[in-house]
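Researcher: Structure for this, please.
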Amino acid sequence: MNELLKNNIIAVDLPDWLTKKFYFEWGVIVDNFTYDDFCSRTTQDLSKQHILIYESQLRGIFKDKEKWHRFIEHLEQSQVHSMIFYIRDLYLSVHPELLRDLNKLGNGRKFRVLSNCYHMDDYENLTFHVLNEEEYYSSNPVMQSLAFELARIKKQPKKDFLLITVLKDDFRKRVHKHLTESGALRNSIVKTSPSGEGIPTHSQLIEALSKQTKDQHFTRTVAYMTDNGPPNYKFYEEVFCEIVLESKNFGISDLSEKTFRPVLLGIPIVFLGSKVMYDKLIHDGYKLVDNNEFYTKWHSDGNFDDRLDALVEFVEDIKNNEMLKKEMLNSAEHNFKIFWTERPLKNRKINLNIIHECFGENNLISQIYKRFNS
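Model: Predicted structure, token format:
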């Protein structure tokens, strides 16, 4: 009987959490080197090896031009053919010049980028794979139980909307100002400092869970939720709908917990992200209720004040139109089912396709499968 082949990958300064991810999810054992150790190794043939690097390390090397040239020189001397770049947010984490350099270097090689969202036509030598990390990690049993606990407790909503955002850019400031000054949020919960008043840090809960439970099963989920901005379920008990202000209204960015939290809780949403992000949600099977072509207006190139007026009109319609409210509730129920039933299966399949495309037919899952047939 043939021996199982070790699935390993050479990494440069890879963070511990990503080392664990590659092993527990994909069966890949990471041989981790510091930048200096990697570049100072005696030149050897790495043409059969896969090289892995995370966005923050890649960005740090690129900023130091001497380091960057040394890194590229070592890749070429070692005949590196396959590289995997783990860049979670292409539009915030790396400079376009870096992607252009990678694209040039990737000519004739297998260069793959693992990311959460992309829309690339300009990089013919880079192959992009979508991870959907937030959606994937949020669909775990503990968070599902919390969602059903909310459904068990939730009564008839007393408030119209929930709007939680940090006023850190002009876009969010203008949306917040326009909505509040219009009076549309008079019977709503509005918070502009999510980590402050009304939303606990949960550090004491995490400490208590560590002492009272036998492993990290519950603690890990609570810590993950806290890292992303901890929820206040009392808000969701009281509101009908959440107004979601994603990180960007133009271009591309990740779909974050801002979108998926109300979706996984079965709460209707008004989605104020970009057109590309909106299209991805629709493509993935989610439904967003429209009225008087609001989303068409919102994603237009028209005057921003006109788009804000359309938003106020939409919000007022949701408050006053019972048929529209029913549509919103139906869409929330649909999205809840999509999130908890269809998307986990699709994301698992996506992950399996990624390991096949990155590591070929000798990946660990394929080897285990074939061994059962031998």
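Researcher: Any notable elements?
Model: The first strand starts at residue 8 and ends at 12. The two ends are 9 Å apart (CA to CA).
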